[in-house]
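Input record (one chain):
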Amino acid sequence: MTDDKDELRSAADELAELGDAVSDAEIEDRLEGFADRLRRMADGERGPDHGQLARLEHNLQDVRSDLDGEHAEAVGSALESVRSYRETVDGV
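The corresponding structure, as predicted from the sequence alone:
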C-alpha cells in the first residue's frame, strides 16, 4: 500500500533539487524552507490541514512567479503534488 503522504515527499524532493539548481540565494533558501516544511508535514503523525496546505500553495505560486522556464515548471510540478495530496484531506 502506498502512503498518501508520498505526494508531499515528492514535492519536497523536487523543491530541494530545484533549490540546488537555482542561482539566486534568496530563492534557494525559500525553496529549501518549503522542502523542509513539506518533509515535516509528510513525517508528522497528523497530516497538514487545508489551511496549512493553502498557505503553502500560495507561497509556491509566489516563488514560481519569480522563476522562468524549467525552474518555474519544477515548482509547478511540486505544486501539483501538493494539490493532489490536498484532495485527499477531509474537510472544507
